[in-house]
Amino acid sequence: MEYRAYDAERDREAVHRIWYETGWLEPGKAEHEEAMDIFLGAGRALVADVGGEAECLAHTAPGSLRYLDEDLPFSCVTAVTTSRVARKQGLAKRLTAAAVAADAAEGALVSGLGMFEQGYYDMLGFGTGGYENWFSFDPARLTVKAKCRVPRRLAAADWAAVHRARLSRARGHGGCNLTPPEMTRAEMLAATNGFGLGYADGPGGELSHLMWCSAAKKEEGPYRINWLVYQTGEQFLELMALLRSLGDQVRLVRMREPQGIQLQDLIERPFQIHTLTEKSKFEHKVDAVAYWQMRVLDVPGCLARTRLAGEEIRFNLKLADPIAEHLSEGSAWRGVAGDYVVTLGPTSDAVRGSDKSLSTLAASVGAFTRMWLGARPATGLAVTDDLAGPPGLLEALDATLRLPEPKPDWEF
Ligand SMILES: CC(C)(COP(=O)(O)OP(=O)(O)OC[C@H]1O[C@@H](n2cnc3c(N)ncnc32)[C@H](O)[C@@H]1OP(=O)(O)O)[C@@H](O)C(=O)NCCC(=O)NCCS
Asked: Are 1 and 94 in contact (CB under 8 A)?
């Protein structure tokens, strides 16, 4: 497969056609084409040609991933699409592998993405993250006691300030930022009936906390909170109070449960309202879905930034990485397969090689990433994923890798 960098002048029409064919663009929504153009201008866009025209597109954007207290260079696969005429030729797989390899060669330590289905990106070494809880609730049922002040209206034109606020929001373990401001700009432009409300309590009047919403039905909802940005618990509660203030009109809001918060605590009689609304268009419910995936791009690089509170353990790691099969001969980065001696603890590292005196963990890079991130413990992954080792080692890994649940808190 020959691939090349996306060239807006040459490929714009062809990539629009791909997105019309996949349903990611809809006729009559010019602002969505503009959003796509802005989005492609940020980060790395690669195309593969068939018959001289771009028929497959992959895009990645740079960012950072919070691992406990460390910020790791991160690359996000933000779009992978193949047109109707070029499916099942391996274009998407190889183009995505090429984009990930290019980002790894430039120093990204971890790659992440939102999957369309389980299984596909496993072929490139990605492992599935934990469940995200999506709450659908009537904002009038929020029991939050805090009061909200009059907020500021936010629109797509405020993208630069909104992006700054997103980057400085509170982030926990697994929290991601995509750094190009154009990512926020494009998302805001592409939102259906998008609107934002927020507060500017930051130094010099910077936005401190806000919500950005889209509304399938503007009148009674549902509204979707595309993102919630805040730096403190008080700010979060003010945003919840603000949401409640819409409750005389809006019957349903859908939002992702923020890290560390049990949203159900703030909802009045959640079981009663679920029973009353079951199967209605305003159904109160929680959907749990594991839809994001990540993979380590550099094992020593990630472990050098891994500082764990648990007891130190050392072991041999035999890592398999399927991405190399999908990379061209010339690719400088070829995945992370191989043998390592790993130390995990307050100071961690990984060194190529093996030590006969240590026990061995054999894993795919996807399963190893899930364990390292804390998406699932080693003993559980040994049951359902490609990860194996002596029981004593698995239990020691469970004890040392006691991490908060990773939550990217960024839709990708
Ligand atoms: C998803 C998409 C990009 C794949 O494009 P493609 O160029 O046809 O993909 P590839 O040729 O690299 O891979 C297709 C192969 O993966 C397999 N595959 C697809 N989904 C899979 C899954 N969940 N698990 C395992 N294998 C899967 C297919 O069966 C096919 O195998 P085959 O060629 O042996 O029949 C394309 O269908 C598309 O554009 N879909 C709409 C947009 C979209 O959802 N994009 C992904 C965003 S995350």
From this structure: yes
* Gap from CA of 160 to ligand 1 centroid (Å): 35
Q: Find where tokens 């201008």 sit.
A: 41
> Which residues, judged by CB distance below 6 Å to any ligand atom, belong to the binding site of ligand 1?
22, 56, 80-82, 87-93, 114-120
Cβ pair 289, 131 in contact under 8 A: yes
Ligand 1 pocket test: which of 1, 17, 56, 88 has the largest number of ligand atoms within 8 Å of its C-beta?
88
Q: 91: CA distance to ligand 1 center in Å?
A: 9
* Closest approach atom of ligand 1 to CA 93: 12
Rounded-to-integer distance, Cα 209 and Cα 237, Å: 10
Phi, psi of 305 (to 5 degrees): -105, 10
Domains observed in the chain: 3-128 (3.40.630.30), 133-289 (3.40.630.30), 298-400 (3.30.1050.10)
- Measuring CA to CA, how many Å separate 231 from each of 64, 165, 183, 365? 17, 9, 21, 33
3-state secondary structure of 63: strand
Task: Quickly tell me which residue has 């993208």 as its tokens.
Answer: 159
pLDDT along the chain (412 residues), means of 10: 95 98 93 96 97 97 98 98 98 98 98 98 98 98 96 98 98 98 97 96 97 93 97 98 97 97 97 96 97 98 96 97 96 97 98 98 98 98 98 98 97 94
- Tell me the CA–centroid distance for residue 81 and ligand 1, in Å: 9
Smallest Cα–Cα separation from 316: which of 291, 344, 292? 344
**Does pTM top 0.90 for this prediction?**
yes
User: What residue's CA is closest to ligand 1, atom 33?
Assistant: 88
Cβ count near 117 (within 10 Å): 7
Within 8 A by CB and 6+ apart from 279, the residues are: none
* Secondary structure of residue 54 in the 3-state scheme: strand
Q: Which atom of ligand 1 is nearest to the CA of 24?
A: 42
Query: Which residue, by CA, sits nearest to atom 43 of ligand 1?
Result: 81
Instruction: Tell me the three state secondary structure of residue 229.
Output: strand
> How far is C-alpha 402 from the chain's CA centre?
21
Atom of ligand 1 nearest to the CA of 22: 41
